[in-house]
What we know:
The structure holds three protein chains of three kinds.
Chain A: E1 7-19, E2 24-36, E3 40-44, H1 51-59, E4 66-76, E5 79-82, H2 91-96, E6 101-104, H3 108-111, H4 118-129, H5 134-147, H6 153-157, H7 166-178, E7 184-188, H8 196-213, E8 216-221, H9 224-230, E9 233-238, E10 241-247, H10 248-253, H11 258-265, E11 315-318, E12 321-323, H12 328-332
Parallel strand pairs in A: 3-8, 3-9, 6-7, 7-8
Antiparallel strand pairs in A: 1-2, 1-4, 4-5, 9-10, 10-12, 11-12
Chain B: H1 2-27, H2 31-41, H3 43-60, H4 62-65, E1 86-89, E2 92-105, E3 111-134, E4 138-147, H5 171-182, H6 184-207, H7 209-224, H8 227-236, H9 244-275, H10 278-285, H11 290-326, H12 338-342, H13 348-353, H14 359-382
Antiparallel strand pairs in B: 1-2, 2-3, 3-4
Chain C: E1 4-17, E2 20-33, E3 37-41, H1 48-56, E4 63-69, E5 75-77, H2 83-90, E6 93-96, H3 110-121, H4 126-139, H5 156-168, E7 174-178, H6 186-203, E8 206-211, H7 214-220, E9 223-228, E10 231-237, H8 238-243, H9 248-256, H10 296-300, E11 305-309, E12 312-315
Parallel strand pairs in C: 3-8, 3-9, 6-7, 7-8
Antiparallel strand pairs in C: 1-2, 1-4, 4-5, 9-10, 10-12, 11-12
Helix pairs in contact in C: 3-4, 3-5, 4-5, 5-6
Amino acid sequence: MENENKKILDVKDLKIQIKMDEGLLTPVRGVNFSVYENETLGLVGESGCGKSLTCKAILGINGKKAHASGNIDFYKDGEVMNLLDLKPDGEKIRSIRGKQISMVFQEPMTSFSPLFTIGSQMTETIRLHITKDKKEAKEIAIDMMKKVGISNAEKRFTQYPHEFSGGMLQRALIATSLVCHPRLLIADEPTTALDVTIQAQILELMQQLQKDYGMGILYVTHDLGTVAKICDRVIVMYLGKIVEMASVRDLFHNPIHPYTRGLIGSVHKIGGKKERLFSIDGTVPLAMNLSDVCGFEDRCTSKCEACKGCEPELTEVSEGHFVACYRGAEFANGGQKNV
Amino acid sequence: MNNKEELLKSKEERALEKKRLKQEKYYMSSQWQLMGRKLLKHKLAIFSIVLLGILYFCMIFSDFIAPEDLENYSAKYSDSPITKIHTVHEGKFIGPFVYAQKFKFNDYGQKMYYEDTATPHRISLFVKGTPYKLLGFIKGDVHLYGVKNEDGTPSDVKVLILGADNLGRDMFSRILLGSKVSLTVPLLGTAISFVLAVIIGGVSGFYGGIIDTIIQRIIEVFMSFPTLPLWMALSAAIPTGISVTNVYILITIIMSLLSWPGLARTVRGRFLSLKKEDYVLAARLAGVSDFKIIVKHLVPGFMSYLIVNLTLGIPNMILGETSMSFLGLGMRAPATSWGVLLQECKSINNIANCPWKLIPLVFVAITVLAFNFLGDGLRDAADPYK
Amino acid sequence: MSEVILKVNNLCKYFDSKGVTIRAVNDISFEMEKGETVGIVGESGCGKTTLGRTIVGAYVPSSGSAEYRAADGEVYDLSNIDKKKMKELRKEIQMIFQDPYSSLDPRMTVFDIISEPLKANFKLKKEEIEEKVKFIAEKVGLKTEFLKRYPHAFSGGQRQRIGIARALVMYPRLIICDEAVSALDVSVQAQVVNLLKDLQKDMDLTYIFISHDLSVVEHISDRVGVMYLGRMVEYADTASIFEKPMHPYTEALLSAVPIPDPDMNNERIPLAGEIPNPANPPKGCPFHTRCRYCTEKCHTEVPEFREREKGHFVACHLTDTSMIKGIVKPKEGM
Lengths: 339, 386, 334
């Protein structure tokens, strides 16, 4: 995969710290991954694992309180630039935002301003990045709306967000984010607020658009079902760290990290046997004043002596399959799994 | 070595235990405790609380702190500027003292004050002066500071730290004594409109339907009146012959009559939104009676919001009382309030020649700002669960 | 199984707003037995929450009845009952809410929240209340020292446990779970689902489990009802619904559920368009605008909700349902 496709994004040792009244919160604690063209990379984790903050750091929209360190290298025409070095409101990052990297949010309702028509909000991006001409911008926008399956696009162009249903609005949002043919699309739980039938439509739409445009997608979600459906590779995050990274098949058929196994085990597979669901005991700790032990240590059912030492590094156990667990190699070779 | 390690460990454990206890305390803090914590972090609000505390403290003890009462006229000191306080007389340090003010007329017939540097008059603490009743019942005649004669009797030399008015009365004393009205009318008025708002807004929000519609229309009518003319009309209706206390009460009532509609709206709005909360439905399904739901879930739910609104409403009342008195429609002499004091500033002559007469304005502005900052802090703290 | 605990007959709940009538619950009938779990599924706006709230007595039904067999063996019509009796029945029918944040009063301690139903319904001594609350708290997995805390100290999963304890403290018989696990994280969801199952066995509970999440519903339910635009379109035992559905909407719904297995994602049956506006539902079968098997008859006639096979109720004009596909069973050993 690495040879076929070009790298778009390289995140190296990304850390995000937020100063709170109670102390220093570190929701993202050193994350490394790359996104390639034409692939969908899933970022999975429960609330508070730092997945949304990681995405927002790529676009530099985390606000002033969150301090990000590390590298986010963006590859563009053979050039490499570290997005974290750019000023968050500067000219350069703004030329990347929307044009090179765009984002789709969870709530389509709040992503559009209720005061302007969908059309005017779509052409705003186009006129900023592609053409100044009003007429041409409109054509591009309507073209894009048709592509994402909005019927009657000319009429829809002049309508306001409240006249759209949730699914339609999400389509419009995707159309807006893809209108400049970005090389990377960040989708932060784009279907969580939608019904299953609409969700399926949107997922298929995203797959289709990826085929057409060849962009990389960073797909953030907590829903393992959608991950299995659309992702090529998956990253599992826990407490601000990557615990496992693998191709989607490896991850679902041969999960290694106890957390991943617990997560997969706790979801009932439709049509599967009605066994008691596996559940991970306890709750996710707050990412504040953490000690050096493995972050999952207190909830893990397979812990060993080594876990009480320093935190395990992300290591490759088989080709393309990375795990941050001291017993990773053992589990990978068919060692005793408690799940 | 071993011992040391153990000691270190137990130290660590103790620190951890301490942290745990702190956390536990946070978990067990009620809404008001959480609000207090958040408010304490709002520096401007804390500063305002301290400032307001000082103002109200001075108000309570105004008779004692003020060197004179309201009727200490003195032609000798009419329009006298701020008295300079010296410490060195003829090259010798003798502690804080003042010179007596003398005046002569200049070529244009204006009074020009100058200091009679012949004799220094030392400022002393706890000077006997005009008798007063502190808080209305504690008799006394000792004032915080002043000038006394050799034999201990009060001297007629005045220490005017904020100047004098055109009848030679000490502005500082008048501002302090005037605060008794200016600082309490808003509080009392707010209290009255609070009661009205909770009852009327609560009924409107809880029962809904036709009652709600009628009350809302009435509120709209009330809110559509221009405030100032209405105040003027209402206070013009106060008969001239009645006592100061009655004027005070009537003015408070007028102020509160005009401010409850906004508050009632807030109460109704909160009531309506709280009614939809799942925990209210849960209580209903558990068989809890309507009355108990109101008292236990709804009222505590909007209390914090109401307090914020009340605090933010106080400045309006202060300004209202001041403007009414300024226009001569509120408190009338011999009673005084900050608005009454500002009446003298109606003429440009007065402001140009005696700028210290504008000082009551500073007090009004500081009080209004302090209440606004406090309200701001309370608003940030009002929803501690975010 | 044994006795019928709830029988819903032609239940309707209409809302009037600005001159428009929204038929949130339209002519719904089903029955359920004691000790079983009935899942109600459907997309947002289909009326499943309204159905639950109407049964529990939060709304007065517009027409129809809900016959409930109480602990004393008598059958009461919940839609037409005097206040005093209703208050008594409240002890037997309780609800668990979706949002673990808005369902707990932030100003009350956990103890006060759980004991509120007790204080409202029984005259108990302080010690008795304390004992009962402690017992139930332990049962749902809350440490007793947590009782003095306020809700803000807890995460979503623990808050949901508090909500469950409040619902259970009066030993109800029927519990309506309205999206009780939907707002929770995956691993916490599993904890709560397991807890609900354990409690059901332990305390002999009957659940109506309302959810949009089909996999959770399949896991927990004995029977499932599928709702669309205020109507129930299919009602049968879980296995039949998922493996041999008879309604085209059920088929489409099932095919849309993403399965957490990359090799198993079934072909989706495309569902044209979107859910019509509930204020203005289509004439005839409510689903006909999106149905791929739609015939002339569907445009005009509302299909009757009737028993096609034993215990399998469907509202559809189709006579031959053999082409309607259910889910693909995962291979064994996976």
